[in-house]
Amino acid sequence: MTVPNGTADPTTLTLTFVAEFDAAPEAVWQVWEDPRKLERWWGPPTYPATFTRHEFVAGGESRYHMTGPDGDQPSGWWRIEAIDRPRSLEFSDGFAGSDGEPLPGDEPVTMRVTFEPTDRGTRMTTVTHFVSTEQMEKMIKMGMQEGMGLAMGQIDAVLASAG
To answer: For the Activator of Hsp90 ATPase homologue 1/2-like C-terminal domain, which residue ranges apply (predicted)?
Structure first.
């Protein structure tokens, strides 16, 4: 697997990660679809995620929180915009309050994930689209780029344990 640190492009307001896995696209798709597998890698190793809701269908929503080493629990939400199993998915991702519901006034990012078969397995490309330069700079300053790279670095272990 190769998970680069992510490529931020301020001209297109995107942050792109490309990773290759020695597993079929269907297996890589499962690490997004199955909430128990998803929470084993979504979030950096020091901030494991817990999904309390995960409706993995177009129009479905997810609610999650991460638990930090000091017990803090930042929360987030997803709204699944499109699914083309096992080729692509697109969702909105935003910050949530302690009740798991979207924070008023928060502008979510949009993430598009594609899964391409390769000779060895699957190439997964994740592109985050920001609504403004200010949002992109703020989220990268918060550690999004590093955190996503660390999170994706855990997918191989999830795939290996899937048998």
So the answer is: 22-159
In the chain, which ranges are continuous DSSP H helix? 25-33, 35-38, 133-141, 144-152, 155-161
- On the CB side of 148, CA atoms within 13 Å amount to 21
User: What pLDDT score does 118 carry?
Assistant: 96
The Cβ-side half-sphere exposure at 128, using a 13 Å CA radius, reads 22
What does DSSP say about strands 14-21 and 7-9: parallel, antiparallel, or unpaired?
antiparallel
Banded model confidence at residue 5, pLDDT cuts 50, 70, 90: confident
Q: What is the DSSP letter of 103?
A: P
At 19 the pLDDT is 94
Fold for 7-116+145-155, please state it. Alpha-D-Glucose-1,6-Bisphosphate; Chain A, domain 4 (3.30.530)
Q: Is the pLDDT of residue 105 over 70?
A: yes
Q: How distant, in Å, are the alpha carbons of 54, 63, 82, 109 from that of 47?
A: 19, 15, 27, 20
Angle at alpha carbon of residue 60, lines to 58 and 66, rounded to 5°: 125
Phi, psi at residue 16, to the nearest 5°? -120, 135
